[in-house]
Design a protein that fits this description.
CATH architecture: 3-Layer(aba) Sandwich
Number of domains: 1
Organism: Acaulospora colombiana
Strand order of the largest sheet: 4-3-2-5-6-7-8-9
Number of strands: 10
Structural class: alpha/beta
Protein name: 14011_t:CDS:1
Number of helices: 5
CATH class: Alpha Beta
Helix content: 25-40%
Length: 229
Amino acid sequence: MALKYLTQKIAQTIDEELMSQAGGFSIDQLMELAGFSVAQAIFRTYDKSKFSRVLICCGPGNNGGDGLVAARHLFHFGYRPNIFYPRRPPKELYQRLVAQCENLKIPFTDNLSDQFSRNDLILDAIFGFSFSGEVKAPFDQIIQDLRETKLPIASVDIPSAWDVEKGNVDGRGFIPSMLVSLTAPKLGVKQFDGIHFLGELEKKYGLNIPPYPGTDQVIDITNLTKEKL
């Protein structure tokens, strides 16, 4: 089966349709589905006996919200997550996601570089498919730190700082070990050759989405033939 890739515009259109009256989803629901998919992909790939300590790096947008949800599910899966969230938006949605993690006593940290020696795996939930342009402070240094770490990195939807359609332009981003694409892979990750999961959200637009086994919310698409949308 040849998977199709999403341009930035089509990815945004699908999101808008899902949250429209016709789609019927709220942003909270989409984040819950995305975060659960990410946590399940990590569970299937990284044995918690070896990768129990997971550092979740969250950005200020919806991708960061996905990371907060994933942290909560990883905690319930038996991992030991901790969260780096340098720029917290004032919206109630994100405040509630933070409160859910705090109620579970999931620690938050302000020092990224201090955490590399204390964790086994990094979850990159900084920028999603809406990102464009230059990476600004403090995230420029964060991306640089992630480029230099030896820890494996799992990215949510697209590796942070990659162009959604052109990929890792000029090598400014890091190369994750695993990617969890949401809805369908974005055009910019066509050359990604690591472990690749697809999180189940929507089956439309002729995306050739494969069937999801059993009750799983994710499917491994690492070896599937790929085709540009």
